[in-house]
Every structure is written in structure tokens, then in C-alpha cells.
Amino acid sequence: MNSPIAQNSSIHIGDSHWSAELEPSGVIKRLGFRSDEDWIDIRYRKGEYTGFRWYLEMNGQKQMAEMVLEHQGVDSALFKGSIGAVNFKLQYHSSEGDFSVTASAANTGRLPFQPQALGLITGMDTYMERFPDWNHTLFPTLLRCEPTHFWGYCMRPDGVILGLASSQPMASWQLQYNVGYMEGDLAWGGHRVETFILDCLHAGPLPERHPQHLFQLLPGEEKQWSIRFRLVEQMDEVLPALASVCPAPFIEVDRTTLALGESARLIIHSGEPVSAFIWYPDGQRLTVQPEAIGKNKYEWVVQGGAEYGHIQISVENRLGKRSEAIISVRPPWSWFMNKAREAAFHFPPRATSHCESWYGLYTLYLAEQFEPNPEMLSRTEQCLDAIYPLMFDMERNEPLLVKHRIQNVSTMVGILVDRYETTGNEAALEKASALADWLIDVAQHPDGSFRAGNTHYTSVIYPAKSIMELILAEQSLAKRHAIWKTRFEKHAASVRLAMDELVRADGDIDTEGELTYEDGMISCSALQLGLFALMQPTEEQGEPYAKAALKLLTGHNSLTNLLIADGRQRGATRRFWESQYDVAIQPNMLNSPHGWTSWRIYATWYAYLLTEDVTYLLQTMNAVGSTAQMVDMQSGQLHWAFVPDPYIRARQISKPMQAVHEAAQQGHHHTMKHPSQEFVIGEQYIDMISDWHEKSLQDNDVHEHFKCLAEVALDKAYVAKDGSGGLVTWNCTAHERDGIIYVQLTEPRIRLVHMNAGAGEVCFRFDDQTVQSQFDDTCWITQEGRIIRHLYALSDDLNVAYGFPESNIQG
């Protein structure tokens, strides 16, 4: 924005930090914030979703308050209106340089006013529709009701962050999800968010953390809410910035999931002294006084305790403002993997038109690699042998149905690779190779992209990563057999073409369904480019792919829960249209984490291996901790996803739909076409459904978490030095003495230790064997003390083949 608001509108207000153009009705037409010498334009909606506006939902109807200008100043404008006996005010003004919205509601009637919801449609444009516009569109990354106040932030893929906070509590919030398409009179949820609403009052039930008293206005009662907005330069400045405008404690947590005996460091940003209250899963309660470590900053280290579950934390300042946090204390990773394996039989893979219905096969084969169980392996083999012929031609090695869903083919490639690596059955790898050939021959376009018709599909469930997994499995055979060398070279060349096209596209790509700045489209692009960079023979050759991956990953921060102090949600991506397909629940709601959150985990892990930046590893392991908790830590039950929305009145199919087991089931089943039941969902886990619903539903996609767990954390420990030179660890403990780093492994299945601590000597024990090794750079160390520099690098004699044809990034 080159200048403040243009001079052709009805109402202009502002100061040196912000400038607004308002319609006579009181809604915002344009809003700008000064950033250094530039102006940042915050887009606002027109039409149905314009704002700010008071809205009321009551007796099954929604109404908007008609507002008129009451007063205007240089930096303020006050509007008034009413609906029935409730009078409203809406004022835009400056508060210590911040743009502020103060709104009030007064009940002038003689009866209590108890709406379903009463709130403010913000009108902010969060509708991410097309490239490159979506790079400059805000997404409501985090909205958070605390018991005594409200805060959150919106973020654009280009890095612009708009923080918001209210010193008064908000009852709830809601996102306005769009309609994707119609099936007759029935709506399917879309992939975009129109805007968001701040609910000042809302009927229950609401999550326990939310204020429970904001459901009514008594006769003669008036309530007021004031929300301040501020541009924030960096994500690590969001919490201190909001703490300076809202007199409440803001909790920053480094680790949100702990193993037994581990600890988390809490930083509390508060202008007032604070006290902290903690409830452990075993019932123990503590009160502590966090130590002041600087201006408006307090520190406290929380010990993980001795029982699995959630540590509940409440921090209160002397003004009575209170914030809450949850830290998860987890069992060993192998426990989650074993429970997920058991669940993969209870919620069995089914032959359908969607690979998400048989994703459990990943968990079944990968779990066998870590904990052999002949009986379970036999059942797994029988399951795959039963459903495979229903979906793929056994002779022609191509899909039998919905051939445009090329992700079905690439996913089966990945499963067959795992089958081969688990059983040693070369026939499984031959099938995987043949399916990859079909994918390349049919779906790869001359520009290198994989496509379904004309739609860009390279980043729909990572087909190139699946082929990369195939390449890594093929390489040993390629050294010994000419036929495998030929296959290897074809697949390697194909992947290079696809990755070169992703680099050239620079984010201008498509996705399945409705186009948007889509969570999976961006994370799958980043993860595939990151893995491909790691597979290059030199850092220089990998640099273009690494650079592209990191750029995409940085933009993807806008769709990720990177600040929330909640071990159930940390690192979760903000996805919101899968419940209608996976578990037959409508309307749209956030599924966060959903199975596809793990796509970002691969991306951040590869980013760590590429950059050695411990921030990426911290993000990775926090997100692994959140996603693994789809297995309930108390009962061992597998959930499908977590829903952070505070209040969704939803319906779910309630009558089992039986499948014909001699055929693959196809399509989706709209909830409203079948017997269903209504209930309220709010900040909770959603259960699996495929144990009793046999037709094509896709809740098995939860197993992406356990595929990811197996690759990233199940058998790996990490030792690194942080910015201050101290040792930080995951899946182990470490201390340095006399120039030697001593590592104690704390997980039962560790095969590799990753050292990112400069140069030195390390000593650790694998089972009963002591390993002592010198290291002079970042590396992996095996159980035998062998050094591995690059986990995904192909053997030297295959690099020439892998480099053909030459990269064409600039072409």
C-alpha cells in the first residue's frame, strides 16, 4: 500500500500507525498499517461477509444489526444500532497507536437475553482463492479463548502477521467455512475460509477453558469488548507483543510433549507478577512462583512427572488474568506404534476408490520391521492380497477404477516398497516398479509435473516421494541386475523432472478439489523438494531444491499451530474439510491434527537435516508428539483427528453401511442422504468409524502419522547444540565431560543417533554394547559405531544415473 487510505470514501480515520476507510454503514472498506516506511494493506470482504458487524443468532435465525454513524473524529468513529431490545455500539479508534475496535451490547428489555450466539463478524478477507493473491491474504492461524481474555493472530504466506487481543473474555469464535459445491440441494464443504467471527456471547456447551458465564445479558445489563490489532514482525514476537497490549499472562512453551522424566521450559510474558498452578495426571497439584528473568518475562521449568497423560497448567497474574496450557507426557514411541498396529486390524483397510481407506497397511508393514510378529504379518499379507485385486489389474499393473486419482497408485507404490523391505519379497518391489511405470507413462506431462487430466497433482499425497522411496529400495538391486538398473534410471529421471518443475512453479500449482493455498499442496511440495535435495550427491546440487522447500515451508507457517501451548495441537496444520469424507460428519470444521498434518512433519524434518537448524527439529518433534496422541494415552484407543473449533453443531451418519466385499466401494456418502444424528463438537478428539461403517470412508488416513513416526522418531535419537552452546536431546539424554559427550538412550528401538554438536567424541550404549566414536561434522552414528553422513544419499556408483537427465530448473 503506497499511501494511506484514498480520499474518495465516506469516512476516513487513522493516525500515524494505521489508516481506515469506512462505509457509512460502519463496515471497513480498507485498512492499512504502517510497517517501517511502507503501508501493509489488510483486505476486507464485500457483500455478505463484510465487517465489522454485529450479528445475532437466535431462535434458528440470523440477523445483522443496521448501524449508523453517531460521531466521527480524526482517529475514531462511533456507530450505533439495535436489534429488538438490544442496543449496539461499534467504535473504531486508536489505543496507544494500535487500531482498536470497541463494541458494546445493552439489553433494554425486561427479560434475559440468551442468544445462541451474539458476536462480531470481523470481515477480514481470509478467502484464499488463487495464486499469487493468496500470498497476500490473511489466514486465521490461531484464535484462542482464555478464561479471562482473548487473543490470536492472522498470518499471510508472505510473512505478514496481524496480532489481536482483547482484555475482556470472549465466549467463543468461529470460522466461516465456504461451500465447495452442491449435490442437488446438499452442500459439500469447500477449501476456503470466508472470514471469522468473534462471539461475545454464546450458548453452551463450550470447552472448559472458555468463560462459562458469557451466555446472556440480564435486563438492563451492558457488556463491552475492546479488541486491539497490531502488526508483528516475527512469530517469536507475537506473545510479548500481545502481552504489552493485554494485561494478561501469555504462555510460551518450548516442548509440548515430553517423555517420562523430561522437562519443558515455560516463558510467561506478563506485565505483572504471576503464579502458576499445575495438575499432574496422577492427581498431584503444585503451586509455584515463576522466576523473573527480565522485563515482563518469567521462567518456569515443568517436570514431566511419572504418569502418562496431560499436565494441566494455569498461570495467573495479580490482576486476576489467567491463561492455560497443556503439556502431554507420553509413553515410548513403540507403544504408539504397537497400538496403531492393533487398531489397523480393528479398523481394517478396505478396497475403495480412495487410498485413504487402506492407509493402515503402512502401519502394519512398518510396525513389523521394528517388532516382528509372524501372526500379525500373516494377517497383513492376507489383507493386502485380498483387497489388491479389487483395485489394481494383476496383469497390466494399473488401477481398475478412478484412474485420475493417481495418488491411489503412488500410495500403493509406497506400501509395496514397505512390503518388500519388510518381507524381502522381490515380487512386491516388481509390482511397485510396474505401478510407478504406469504413473510415469500415463500421468507425467512433458513439463515434468504429474497431472490428473489438466490438474497439477505432483503435490497430492506426494507421488514423487513414493517414487523416491522406490528408488532407495531399488538401488541395491540396480548394482547387480541390468533390469533393475533400467528401472532405477527411469524412476530417478522422472523424479528429477517433477522436482525441477516444482522449483520453476514457485508455488503456482494446483491441488485436488477446490483450489486454494492448500495445506497439503504446500507441505507435500516442501517435503518432496526437501527429500530430493537430501538425495543429491553434493550440497551444491541440492541447493535449488532445498531453497525452494524452505521457501514453501516458511509460507506454510501461516497454516500451522506453532505457538499454541497445547500438546494436543502443537504443530498441527489448519485443515478443515476432511470430516465430511473421512468420518461422515458435516459441516466443515478444523481437523487439526489430521493425518495430513504429518506431511509438514516430513518437511520440517528434511529441513532440519538440510540446514542443521534446531528450530526445525523442535517443530518436528513437537508435532510428532501431538499426532501420535491420536492413540489415546490412557485407553490405547485410536482416534481419527482433533477438532479445535469451540462449537460445531454437526451431524454424523449413524446407521452402518455394509459393503459388498467382492467389489471395491466407490465415492463419497453425503451425511444428509443417510440416517444421521446431531450433536455438538468442541475442542475434542473424533473417533474412528471404519470398524462399523464398511463403505467408502477414509478415516484410515490417520495412519500417515505412524508412517511418519517410523521414519522420523521411532528408531532415532538426536543430540544437538542450541544457540547458547548447550546440549539439547530427543529420545535420549546427554552430558559433556572431559571433551566426551555421553548419551543415554531413553527409547527401546533406537538404531541411529544423530549428532549435530560440532566435532568431538561421543559414547553411548546400544543394549549391552558400548559405542564410542569420533565425529567431526553433523552425522548419524549406527549401533556399530559407523558414521553415516547423509541418510538418503544414493551410493556413489549410482549418482551418474540419478543425475540423468540434467536438471532443467531454469528451462
TrEMBL record:
SUPFAM superfamilies named among the record's database cross-references? Six-hairpin glycosidases
Question: Which InterPro entries does this UniProt record tie to the protein?
Answer: 6-hairpin_glycosidase_sf (IPR008928)
Q: Which GO terms describe its biological process?
A: carbohydrate metabolic process
Q: Which domain of life is it from?
A: Bacteria
Q: What is this protein called?
A: Uncharacterized protein
Lineage here is: Bacteria, Bacillati, Bacillota, Bacilli, Bacillales
